[in-house]
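Batch 3, record 17
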Amino acid sequence: MVRACRLLICLLAAVCMISPGPLLAETGRGAIKVVNARTAKGEDAYLLHAQLDIRLSSGALGALQNGVPLVIEFQIQALKTHTWLWDAVIAETRQARQISYHALSRTYVLRDINTGRQQNFRSLEDALLMAGFLQELPVLEYRLLGDNKNYAMRLRGNLDIESLPTPVRLLAYVSSAWDMDNEWHKWRLAR
Amino acid sequence: MATGTVKRLGFGILPILAMFVVLLVSLSMMSDATHNSERFGEHYSSLLLINALGLVVLGALVVANIIWLVTQQRKKAPGIQLTTRLVVMFVVLAVVPVSIVYYFSLQFLHRGMDSWFDVRIEQALGDALDLSRTALDVRLRDVLHLTEQMAEELSESPPATLSLSLYDLRVRSSAAEVTLLGSDGRIVASSSADLTVIVPSQPSGEMLQVLHGGKHYIGLDPVGDSGLYARALVPVQSSRQDSEVYTLQALFTVSERMSQLADSVQSAFAHYNELAYLRTPLKFSYTLTLSIVLVLSLLAAIWTAFFSARRLVAPVRDLAEATRAVAEGDYSKRLPVVSKDELGFLARSFNDMTRRLSRARDTARKSQHQVESQRAYLEAVLANLSSGVIGLDSNLVIRAVNSAAQQNLGVDIKPYLGKALVDVGEDHAFLVPLIEVIANNCGKDKQAWQAEMSLFGVNGRQILICRGTSLKGVGSRRGSQVIVFDDVTALIQAQRDSAWGEVARRLAHEIKNPLTPIQLSAERLRRRYIDHMDKDDVEVLDRATRTIVNQVEAMKKMVNAFSEYARAPNISMEPIDLNKLASEVLDLYRGSAINAAIRAELDSVCPAVEGDAGRLRQLLHNLIKNALEAVNDRDDALVSLTTRCGGDADSRYVEVCVDDNGPGFEEKVLENLFEPYVSTKPRGSGLGLAIVKKIIEEHGGMIAAETSPEGGARIRIRLLVSRTAAAGDTGDDTDMNDRTRSARDAGL
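Prediction for the assembled complex:
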């Protein structure tokens, strides 16, 4: 849905009489890369330990500094792998963390949307570092696994454009200043 | 059916109206969502997608209409010019005002949004924020000082009583939460005013980094919806040498009033800042929404223009198509009468007109069919008629002819259809008498006429009964002529043969039968009484009985001769060389004791004729005998026999003339010369020339008698040349035509 919207909006912007040229021309590509990720066995489920390097694009950074909260969403999938067929998703977990700037206290507020836990940081780097830190996150219950040993996990993070204010959403879809690379990071599930 | 469904969906007004309404609602929701409203904000992208899809559908419809228009233009479909003009007019009427409104709306929008933002407001909000920070800084300094005092007190406390000391310090200092952290960041002891808090708030790494530099940390922490907290981190220096260096974290609430004011300033500043940041994206969003509205309106207007133009032009197009169909002869075309306006009246009138035309055409077809049936019937009748029929127009041009005409005349008239009747005469001279009779009678404006004539043509001598009927002309013009002619040659011959045969049978029955008893009775009278009578009576009786017997014998001969005349002989037709036959017959007479000179002028190139040798020999005998008897008492008696070839390609004949220098024929005798028992001789039987004529008729020839200019009698006969001889003989047509004309002039 989001991709379809993005495609159509790109098309519309191309034919639109009023071209947002200056906005589209901005550069500063962001990225959310998985630095390391591993799964460890917990009591009832596998626990995820991961560190993601979050670099905001110029568009996202500008929005954040102007008071627009950003939501970083982490998508974790457990896969049953096949040699000749596509992998099947057997479990999926999403984690969302919101970063906002509190002007009065000059702090960046990091809030875990899933747990409601909030942390304040003087610097954005610390806030992003903590935002990309996932620790002991239950991602796959043992009961979902069969005898097959061909299981894998994959993780990626992305900026949730749909959580942005409506006027920015359009730009975020269209403008390259909002582009953020987010590739899947995949690893075999050790049993 | 699928095409019909697509057409209904594509061009029907209701689906398009429904889609237009949906798009309008969607646009309204999108416009609302642009304000970042909670109602539609989260559906903004979906609404945008719906509108985009709607625009694509509308655009596709418009493109389909344009393609249809271009295709119809190329096909030069009826009414397409009018449709194009209406579409262009509607589009121009819609595009111009909408574009103007769009331009000015855009201008107002941009200027209106720019007017929202003021540098002074921005400055005031910044100043308010600084003011709040300054005010809070005082509180933060107090908090830091208080925390330092608490740290000093704690440094004196033994480790076992740290928790109690913390509680005591928190209560005394009115802190919200007090926590003692180890050097590795672990929680050593904690006390919180909120009893629900199990895990105390932990300082971040960067806060602890500040402490590692030997400094104290003091800062404001926004904590969820609980307002602001002042967080202070101070190291606790224990007096014991081996003791661990702890860190005291104290959280103090900001006063409620100050917190509210600070939150208000923060939120106003944040909102304004966000709004200022969103100014450009907002402009873009509004412009996009407005542009979508514009495009939607334009596409809808263009589609409506197509729809309206088609609806308006449809009756005219139907009328044009129907008119074209009528022009091509299709009168079954009916226009749908869907309205009661002028176009409806026009459609009704057109339908009436085509209905009448159709009825008239059906009537005309029926009439034509009847005429054709009658014509076919007439042609069938004419074709099966034994009478020849020729149709002539008022200028005597041949318009119709039946096959019996060819059979009767021996000439194919059909090639002369459309040509003047005289042209037939030019090619077939023997038909000239017939053509003259027709021309003479047609020129007299007679309603009906009848004539009998004799032709000597391909079939020999023919007697035709020709009847003419004048058809009614138009106005002063003369009408056409229908000429019907019958070949009555065979009929007349048969009638004559039948009549004479009946006479012969009667003669044989009524006369010949009593003759024998009469003769026997006379001879018996003579034998019985001649010996008993005296000499005078014997002489009388002898003379009387002899007279009776002689007369009976004469009568028998006469009856036999007549029977011979009436009997229909068996004729065996074969090519006969008339010159040779004439020479043989003349040779018989040259050797006899006659006192007449016999002269023969035989045409050496005479072809053979079709005939029976015996009958023709008898014919020549009779003619020569008659001629000799006519000149018997003359000293310079002369009988001559001449042969020559004449006629045209259609009817070549050999003419035989027998002349004598006798007294010739009296005028009154000529009329019945060839009838039986007509004779100019005192002792003639009266059957000689009748038999001659009979033989000529049997051969399809002609015979004529006349008194020659020199005074003698002349008998001329003509016999058709044998077909095989005619085919091998080219002859001189011009000469033959001349000869034929001479023969006609001679009264043949």
